[in-house]
Amino acid sequence: MRTGVECLMDGLQQAGVETVFGLPGGSVLDIFKDLYHAPFEFILVRHEQGATHMADGYARATGKVGCCLVTSGPGATNTVTGLATANMDSVPMVCISGQVPSNMIGNDAFQEADITGITRPVTKHNYLVRNVDDLPRIIAEAFYIAATGRPGPVLIDIPKDVQRASTNALTPQEIKIRGYNPNTAGHPRQIAKLAEALNRAEKPLLYVGAGVICSGAAAELTALARKARLPVTTTLLGLGSFPETDPLSLRMLGMHGSVTANYATQECDLLVSVGARFDDRVTGKLSEFAPHATIAHIDIDPSAISKSVAVDIPVVGDVRHVLTALLPLVEERPREAWLSKLGQWQEKYPFTYDQDPGKLMPQYVIDKIYELTRGDAIIATEVGQHQMWAAHFYKYTQPRTFISSGGLGTMGFGLPAAIGAQVGRRDKMVVDIAGDGSAQMNFQELVVAVEHQLPVKVVILNNSYLGMVRQWQEMFYKGEYSATVLGQADRPQNERVPGAAPHYLPDFVKMAEAHGALGLRAVKREEVVPSLEKAFAWNGPAVLECMVEREVNVYPMVPAGASLLEMIHSMA
Amino acid sequence: MKHIISAVVENQPGVLARVVGLISGRGYNIDSLNVAPTNDPTTSRITMVVPGDDRVLEQVTKQLNKLVDVIKVHDFTGEKFTDRELMLAKVMTTAKNRSAVIELASLFNARIVCVQSKSLTVQMVGTTDEVDNMLELLRSNGILELSRSGVIAVGRLD
Question: Smallest Cα–Cα separation from A540: which of A520, A518, A560?
């Protein structure tokens, strides 16, 4: 006989869990009693949202399933943003929440929330465990569902009485779920059709997303692109799936994509999506997207096919399986005319920024992070302008080195995700590139990095704005900066603070120090490199605040709903 | 265009909420909904009539298929199938119109299943069109209560 909690501990171990991120509470006291003696590491976070993003960052950096543990009610509701973030970006994660005792459910009990109801639309699957006999099976199923097919977060809600009840049930040897059978091998006829299209195409383009990283297909993708001389553009979350230092790389496409990648998309005669889902930030105006191209789509999720863009050659399957089968069927081709045209665009339209030595440009900071880490760091980001610059000015060459909330766009994701990534990859330098808006959203988790000696580096590009929203206000809302000014100067009348308010809050250097980390500030361009060197050489967590030029915009930019050809290159 | 979507699902709490949530979360209304166990008591069949364009409904069907608790989904639209609805209508009656209501019922192969001093309850099985038609004709008598099962359907192909 085992108790529910014992089943859980055994189940986590059998699933290969090495680290659990979480925070205790009344409904999980029994779980924490056994956790006290558990063979795996427990990381105590300061807010449950932090636990979910840490588990997420850990999963993205390692490819393993991230695991977090929280209490009922507010503990559980605090995971919603983290679950939704992981769900949008297909990140494997298992979240265990305590629940009030079964006989109290529905009674508005203390710290009760219907968390399976709340998280139903933002998880891949979830369970409310009603009977302890089901628990061993449910735990095994949860990890299986999280990691297979199109990965995603799974929540298991365990009432307190189920945790305490005893059972003879064992973990099943084999998992069979009749409603869940992801198809991994692509259909050979579809693969042959795709090969034929690739062999025939004069202007092909590979449009690569996170599916390549999920399925571990970076090597296969690189082999395919190099063999058949196929240019590659990636989505934001596809960064790292193909070396951006390779001449075949056109860098990122879409709203803030490179000119070359967007021009190539609009001119190609065959567009092959490899594990990418035609997100609206990629396609721009749908009716004008890739107008000359036959569209092929490799995806493990059948519902991703023809969701927004009609697909001519669908291949449902695991990207690695499909690419492995495709490679021998694809012929070598020089494609000189196409590649030379792309090369000319690349030369003409690189990502650029103001090189005035008197200005501390935000892009310059990322340029220097790239140089000093030799492109070998894991970069996490928050969400906003800095995120786009981190995509433009750092060249990613390895999968699982760019960790960012793409689909949901969750500010406050980067720091906890960086901590989770560092837990999973202690051998790597992990840098969170942040804006001053996002940096304030989960800063409390810096304590976790300090306590556990996880030497993450946080580089804050402080322009004292919510920069991306400010950019939209500048470009599309008459320059009226409503609620985007984080400093005191230049605020609209109704946001003015009476009396002598400090010019800018918080003081990030003091804040870093208060959390036990090294705090640094660079005000001038020439201070950036020495400060970065100091932060990187420091053997613990460090926060570097760079006081960057305030009103810098991310370019190129395709306005929302416009065609990819309608790129704005600058505010002339 | 109306779609008749039939899903075989795990007969478990919360499954219906998942299915309905997926559709309502996209802003679509469900015209009718019927749920009951199949011949395998561990599974239920959900039959839904959902209005919407074909492309959207194809996407909904694919998304339903993705749900772990959904075993099989089928959209009957454009196929041969047999569909029926059950209706119970409590019709206001007096000595004056009682025989007319009974006659109407027999014309539609409907049955009178409950007789009360001021009402008759008419039970009818038919396609949605037939039920609508019958209701239209009954309406002038005054309908006190109406309950329809929603469409259920089985395919005609083996």
Answer: A518
Can you name the CATH fold of A2-167? Rossmann fold (3.40.50)
How far apart CA A257 and CA A431 sit, in angstroms, is 22
Residue B77 sits at φ, ψ, to 5 deg, of: -55, 130
- How far does the CA of residue B32 sit from the closest CA of chain A (Å)? 22
List the single residue in A120, A125, A128 with the smallest CB-CB distance to B21. A120
Cβ(A315)–Cβ(A194) below 8 Å:
yes
* B60/chain A closest Cα distance in angstroms: 9
Q: Does B62 touch chain A (CB under 8 A)?
A: yes
What is the tens place of the pLDDT at every residue in A8-42?
A: 999 999 999 999 999 999 999 999 999 999 999 99
Q: Chain B window 75-134: which residues touch A at a Cβ cutoff of 8 Å?
A: none
Distance in angstroms (rounded) separating the CA atoms of residues A58 and A65: 8
As a whole number of angstroms, the distance between CA A5 and CA A32 comes to 9
* Residue position matching structure tokens 């058949």: A228
Q: Are B14 and B63 in contact (CB under 8 A)?
A: no
Chain B hits for A128, CB-CB cut-off 8 Å, are 13-14
Interchain pair B69, A120: CB under 8 A:
no
Q: Which tokens is B65 given?
A: 């298929």
Judged by CB atoms closer than 8 Å, whether chains meet at B68 and A125 is answered as yes
Measured between CB atoms, which of A121, A177, A306 is closest to B68? A177
- Here the tokens at position A542 are 């460090």
Token pair, residue A296, equals 């092929």
Beta-carbon count within 10 A of A14 CB:
13
Q: How far apart are the first and last CA of chain A?
A: 74
| Average pLDDT for A277-288 | 94
Number of independent structural domains in chain B: 2
Chain B: closest CA distance from residue A296 (Å): 18
The reply to whether domains A2-167 and A188-348 share a CATH topology is yes
The verdict on B25 touching A (C-beta cutoff 8 Å) is yes
Across the A:B interface, residue pairs with CB atoms under 8 Å apart total 39
* Strand order from edge to edge, sheet including B43-51: B32-37, B43-51, B2-10, B70-75
Which residue range(s) make up the domain with B118? Answer: 82-155
Do A30 and A160 meet the contact criterion of CB atoms below 8 Å apart?
yes
Task: For residue A270, give every residue at least 6 positions away whose Cβ sits within 8 Å of its Cβ, in sequence order, or none.
Answer: A197, A198, A200, A201, A203, A204, A205, A293, A294, A296
Q: What pLDDT digit, counting tens, does each position of B31-81 carry? A: 999 999 999 999 999 999 999 888 888 889 999 999 999 999 999 988 899
Cα separation, A382 vs A440, in Å, equals 10
Q: From 3.10.129.10, 3.40.50.970, 3.30.450.20, 3.40.50.150, which CATH number describes the A362-547 domain?
A: 3.40.50.970
Which of A502, A412, A426, A425 is closest to A458 using CA atoms?
A412
Query: A51, A82 in Cβ contact below 8 A?
Result: yes
Domains of chain A, by residue range, sit at 2-167, 188-348, 362-547
Distance CA B85, CA A470 (A): 56
Q: Average pLDDT for residues A195-212, to the nearest whole number?
A: 98
